[in-house]
C-alpha cells in the first residue's frame, strides 16, 4: 500500500510541476505580448481547479496513510490553494 501511495504522489507531483511550467510559459507569452490578457486568463483559469484537486488529493492521501511529516509539508500549499480559489470565486 505504501508503494502505491508514493507512486501516485510522484505522478501527481510531476503533473503539478508540468502545470507550473505551463503557467510560467503562458505568463511569459503575456509579458512579451504574444497573447492578450483575456486569452491568457482563459488558458490559465481552466487549470486552477485541477491544480487544487491535485494538491488536495496528495495531502489527504498522506493524512490517511499516516505519513505525518509529508502531510505537514503539503498542508500549507493545499491550504493556500484552497484560500486562493475561495477568494477568486466571489
What can you tell me about this protein's structure?
It is a single chain. The protein is elongated, with a radius of gyration of 15 Å. The protein is mainly alpha-helical and 90 residues long. The longest helix has 30 residues, at 2-31. It has helices at residues 2-31, 37-45, 48-64, 68-89. Helix content is 87%, strand content 0%.
The biggest beta sheet is recorded as: none
Instruction: State the helix count.
Output: 4
User: What's the helix-strand series?
Assistant: HHHH
- Cα-to-Cα separation, first versus last residue: 40 Å
- Which term fits the overall shape? elongated
Low-confidence stretches: none
Mean pLDDT: 90
Measured as a percent range, the helix fraction is over 70%
- Beta-strand portion reads under 5%
**Class from helix and strand fractions:** mainly alpha
The gyration radius over C-alpha positions equals: 15 Å
- Report the strand count: 0
Summarize the model shown:
The protein has four helices and no strands. It is mainly alpha-helical.
Question: Top keywords for this entry?
Answer:
90 residues; 4 helices; elongated
Strand and helix map with partners:
Elements (H helix, E strand, L loop, with lengths): L1 H30 L5 H9 L2 H17 L3 H22 L1
Pfam families: Cornichon
Protein name: Cornichon family member 4
Organism: Sciurus vulgaris
